[in-house]
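Batch job 17 of 40 flagged for manual review because the log was empty.
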Amino acid sequence: MKSFSRHILTLCAALLPLAFACNPDAPYNYPGLKSVSYQGTDAVIANPERGFYSAAEIYSATHPVISSVSLTANRKQGRTIFLLEFHLTDYVNSDIAEDYLTLIRKDFQTLRDCGAKCILRFCYSNGFDEKDKPWDATPTQALSHIAQLKPILQEYYDVIMVVQAGFIGSWGEWYYTENYKDTPTRKLIVDALLDAVPAERQISLRTPAFKMQLYGFSASDTLTRETAHQATIKARLGGHNDCYLATSNDQGTFSGSKDRKYWEAESPFVIMGGETCGVSAFCHCEPQADNAKARGVLADMAANHYTYINQGYHPGVISRWKSEGCFEDLQRRLGYRYVLEKGFFTKTPKAGEDFRSVLIIRNDGFAPAMNPRDAELILTDASGKEVGTWPLESDPRYWMPEEPTTVDQTFALPSGLSGEYTLWLNLPDPCSNLRGNPFYSIRLANEGVWDENTGYNKLLTITL
């Protein structure tokens, strides 16, 4: 009997590929619906809020603002995010001057005009030697600066992807510090940022231990689908590792395996990113035979759901990723990469009647989209005029890399329609200043679906 069972299992395994070949819709089963297949692409896509970033350090009001030329050049290379590191060195003992606040506003407006967003950090020092002191301002002065910045952060939060906590220590990295020796004092800064930055945006801390220590969270009580993406402290605090894959503990980023597991468990729901800081045995593309502890950057970014990394530093690490052949894969996979696999639609649509749309979406990226994102179906006529819009009952922030997402929705077509129409998937930025700009809409990683003028992704053409 056991031998017979094994033969049956072997036969089934042999026939399974044939069954898929004969039925291109396998393993999906939507009888009565029209099936449409979509072709993926290997292209590097300049999608919003993900990918390699370029850095800009801005030291005083006399420093040039970021330029539209630079932003446009970066977009052509697939980059849409920038680290804006504002140095408040000149104001360590005073309020921020109005001309510097004006410069900050100009930089944010340039981002908005050019279809880009920023990772934002404020700091006081660009070194950790005695000559670089003061490394940071007093808590009272820093809190005053955050209060000055709050109106600007509120006005321009649409072009802020994430805020790194900053303010404390050299480069705002929370290590070399004169004024923040204890947890309660550090917590003052994070509390102020959580208040100053709109709830739609996250604050990133330099290590996982800071999140646990500041607010009493434990490694056994991490975010879940049910508790993620809410206006709570736990859901709004992510991380940035600025010595990524540098040593066995990333130069003190992790104090042990518990810290690593904590960030991994949180990473499907909060923004993770950073930069490398030196070539090491840990920053290879793939696992190495002589280092059992290193799983390689591709596997590590997947496990930690990385959204962004610095493209300019460390140059030796970037060079290694290029020479070992994973750089382009990182370009494609940092953050989300949504691919439309199949669609199933009502075979004979009629005006005024229900229409069913089933989309199978695969995420080939390391992470889902992290900030709020609208998702909707749009119907246009032959001239491109919208005749119907239906918000999806599915949140792109939960379209995870682990398995395809099924978006199944039925809606009523408008009455009185006749002729040829096009159904689109639109994934725009929900902020009113950006919603109509295709630079801020998500492009699916498929051939022949993207409309660069509208930012819509074409699903199918129907005749009514």
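Reviewer: the log was empty due to a logging misconfiguration, but the result itself is present. The chain is about 25% helix and 20% strand. Unflagging and moving on to job 18.
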